[in-house]
Write a structure and sequence with these properties.
The chain has helices spanning about 5-15, 35-45, 50-60, 85-105, 105-125, 150-170, 175-190, 200-210, 215-230, 245-260, 265-270, 300-315, 320-325, and strands at about 30, 75, 80, 230, 235, 245, 285-290, 295. The chain is α+β, with helices and mostly antiparallel strands. This is Prenyltransferase/squalene oxidase-like repeat protein.
């Protein structure tokens, strides 16, 4: 388990990559996408850097487009990829709810609620027949009929965080409730609604991480993919047919394991990826183990943030730790897997596997 001093050093490194105007890119001078920027801002809040996290959210708020979307990529404040993606729009709600749990900053919630509301209204407009949500907007403003499982699992969490914010500010959002119910059913029961990207580890664990699949079903899902993706002592593969382990995916798996009640396995994964840690608290993105080579040769704020969020979920150190550790804590009631059993089946003793 990472110590508090190690977490603080990583948070300080993330803070050092933030631009003076609040932008929080992959690394200083690099690209910025809304989803990863929110993840890095959440890590700042875990580390007590609330003003910096709020500045990152305000930077995004200032660039929201009239339809509720953001560009897919920015660099030095300029748009470098104009396309609008649904998971980018949704994730601000997760960050804002996390910020509220971390800091209790009601003024920031009031300021950014209209931004989160407009973004989630766009997400619900992008929902397709059958419950899945299109991954992007076409040039004519209609949703693409391609739906991605990982992005949809993230949007399941985002809509529920949005509903928590709506309760907090006293503005009911019945359309979101209907949307998240349909989306949850699609994630659990309609795999054909999503593009087949099963070779990617995120499609394996994200329905658990996002809270759509819980309890016994979550443990069974994680167990089913374990041998395909987990490389003992190194972390998990990003793609099942490539000898490349990545730090962010490993720590996101740890978050899914915590949510599924498998703390020991989560601890093992966080420990396994520490070979990516640098002396200043930053983390390299990934490692090609047959070549004993880091690749790509970059240290990213979102990788470091995933480590911080996993450590927080395991330690319970911040007031927001339960956001990932206990998905059932989000409204509305009954949105988790209704077939989930009580209690957790035990895995093989001493193996650390689900």
């Amino acid at each position: 388990m990472l110590g508090a001093d190690q977490v603080r050093r990583t948070v300080a490194w993330i803070a050092g990559e933030q631009a003076a105007d609040g932008a929080l890119p992959w690394f200083a001078g690099g690209q910025l996408d809304p989803w990863d920027s929110v993840e890095a801002a959440m890590a700042l809040d875990v580390g007590g850097e609330h003003a910096r996290a709020a500045a990152a959210y305000r930077w995004l708020a200032g660039r929201q487009r009239p339809d509720g979307s953001w560009a897919a990529e920015y660099r030095a404040g300029a748009v470098t990829a104009p396309g609008a993606e649904s998971n980018h729009a949704g994730y601000l709600a997760v960050g804002l709810w996390h910020s509220w749990l971390s800091s209790g900053d009601a003024a920031l919630v009031a300021e950014l609620w209209p931004v989160a509301r407009a973004a989630l209204d766009l997400v619900t407009r992008m929902q397709l027949p059958g419950g899945a949500i299109g991954w992007a907007l076409r040039p004519d403003g209609t949703p693409d009929d391609l739906a991605l499982l990982t992005g949809n699992a993230s949007l399941f969490q985002a809509l529920r965080c949005g509903l928590a914010l709506a309760e907090l500010v006293g503005e009911g959002q019945p359309d979101w409730e209907l949307a998240v119910a349909d989306l949850g059913a699609a994630l659990r029961e309609r795999p054909a609604a999503f593009a087949d990207r099963s070779r990617y580890s995120m499609d394996w664990y994200y329905p658990v991480l996002g809270g759509a699949v819980t309890g016994h079903a979550a443990r069974a899902r994680l167990a089913a993919g374990w041998d395909r993706f987990v490389v003992p002592g190194l972390g998990i593969r990003c793609v099942d047919d490539r000898p490349w382990v990545t730090g962010a995916e490993t720590c996101e798996l740890a978050l899914a394991l915590v949510a599924a009640g498998q703390r020991d396995a989560a601890l093992e994964q966080v420990a396994a990826m520490q070979h990516l840690r640098d002396d200043d608290g930053a983390y390299w993105t990934g490692y090609v183990y047959p070549d004993d080579a880091r690749w790509p040769v970059e240290r990213t704020t979102w990788t470091a943030a995933a480590v911080v969020l996993a450590a927080d979920a395991l330690s319970g150190a911040s007031a927001a730790a339960g956001l990932f550790a206990d998905p059932a804590g989000l409204p509305p009631a009954g949105m988790a897997d209704p077939t989930a059993g009580a209690g957790w089946p035990t895995g093989p003793a001493g193996t650390g596997t689900p």
